[in-house]
């Protein structure tokens, strides 16, 4: 049985596909978008977090650490990362929950047991399970076994992806998936690479491949002011999506900076500073522009 690394399982999700859903968040992503709302999902490995504001300086984490990696200083608890083995002993001992770990290795059975508890809600709402991230295609063996297990239980399966993966992996996933939520971020490859860390050729060719094989696809466009909200890019995006057979549903996602606190918590620099969210008027204008390409456009998830 495959194992994989996840960082959250969200129940009763209503924006990750049709109906009421359970969303499983995979850890690890090949992209590093400046605006990423789930920065805790970027790396594959577990992350140890220390929240100084919660720390009461009791020293319990220092006493229990088998590697003697922790020490107390005027700045709070200092951890020698070269010694830390992510055993989570310190987090378990901390009475104020000042230490947390993000990322857990799970088996397919572990995850499926949590998913199937909510089958009654899926049945009543035409919902199901959504595999998100991070990027679920980065853990293909784990994802494929989960899709197979959910298929046997007749649970609707959605994969939320940026599409940056080997085409063979993508097609294997497509054989087991009822819906793809597929991100299109920018049509210019160089600008895409600057702001996401990777070029867009493979992403766009994979989307064409999926559409050509009749996959059910909903395209999602995060509207990032100063990055992809100009008329030229919107028109190029609309023209491309409308050329895909069977693809017409587009969701526009409004940028917001609510994830900044997450970046601070995990010690990662937030690169997209001083960006104001698009106004409702601007989003409506983008919506109308895309509709001219024959697309069905909705603002929101």
Structure report:
The protein is of the alpha/beta class and 301 residues long. The protein has 2 domains: 238 residues, Aldolase class I (TIM Barrel), CATH 3.20.20; 53 residues, 2-Layer Sandwich (Alpha-Beta Plaits), CATH 3.30.70.20. It has a 9-stranded mixed β-sheet with strand order 7-1-2-8-9-10-11-12-13. A two-stranded antiparallel sheet has the order 3-6. β11, α9 and β12 form a beta-alpha-beta unit. The relative contact order is 0.14.
Briefly summarize what is shown.
With 301 residues, this protein is of the alpha/beta class. It has helices spanning 60-64, 89-93, 108-116, 119-125, 140-152, 167-174, 189-196, 201-212, 231-242, 260-266, 280-291; strands spanning 3-13, 21-26, 47-50, 70-73, 76-79, 99-102, 104-107, 128-132, 156-161, 179-183, 217-223, 249-254, 296-299. α3 (108-116) runs parallel beside α5 (140-152) and α9 (231-242) crosses α11 (280-291).
Q: What top-tier CATH class of the largest domain fits best?
A: Alpha Beta
Secondary-structure element series: EEEHEEHEEHHEHEHEHHEHEHHE
Mean pLDDT: 95
Which spans of ≥5 residues are poorly predicted at pLDDT below 50? none
Number of helices: 11
CATH 2nd-level architecture of the largest domain: Alpha-Beta Barrel
CATH homologous superfamily grouping of the largest domain? Aldolase class I
Total of domains: 2
Radius of gyration: 21 Å
- Describe the sheet with the most strands: 9 strands, mixed
Fold-level CATH name of the largest domain: TIM Barrel
What percentage of residues falls in helices of 4 or more residues? 25-40%
Count all strands and give the number: 13
What topology, given as strand order, has the largest sheet? 7-1-2-8-9-10-11-12-13
Helix/strand class: alpha/beta
Give the CA-CA distance, first to last residue.
33 Å
Strand content: 15-25%
Approximate shape: globular
